[in-house]
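Structure Section — protein described below
Tokens — whole-number codes for backbone shape
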Amino acid sequence: MKPSLLFLVLVFWISSWLPTSLDKWALFSSFICILGLFAALFAQNQIKDRRWPAKTLLALAVLVLIGGAFLAIVAWGLGTSVDGAITLFFVVGFSSYLHMIARIITPGQVSNFHFGAGFLVLFLLASWSWVSAVGMAVHRGASGNTDEACILVPKPIRYDTELSSIWEMRLPQVATSRTGPTGTVVLDYHAILVAPGNERTEVYNWSKRQMRFEVLDTKRNPYLPTVCP
């Protein structure tokens, strides 16, 4: 039962960031992660009292976390805070994966299957991504009649691409190329909700921090769409 739980959490984590386009690099990375888990489970009895493989993986996990944190800061400085946060999302996830694999092959862990913090962090990261997606899908934060509403994202700057499934709304998949003024009166938002009404159309911005839609002032954002495509 415990190996199956490991596999389910690993797949849950992979599902939280796998690109909607199913790029080759993403599929290859997913295959390597799953293969690494099975290899670690198989190697438990083979390694026996050798501690250096687990220690090496733990050291690698720390190096990935430190180096990745630096890359996240660079991404934040050259891009946006969201670029840094998404980079950190992947870095923490991969570091936690290495930590989990190290715990699996640590001598003395065969009997009690204590997988440590890495296992828990992978579950929390995946939950965060999917909870954000569900919140967006149910129009969390929006009020009034949202039955005819649509969620639009900038591709790259025009809001003419509609998100139609929860799979497209996961945390790392929804992000504009930049935030703030772009040299015009238009502001870039990660995703907007257009909710047509009889008297007035409401436009909302999706807040990644609050994981909810927040109403926008259409007078300050006159170029945002007010009709669904």
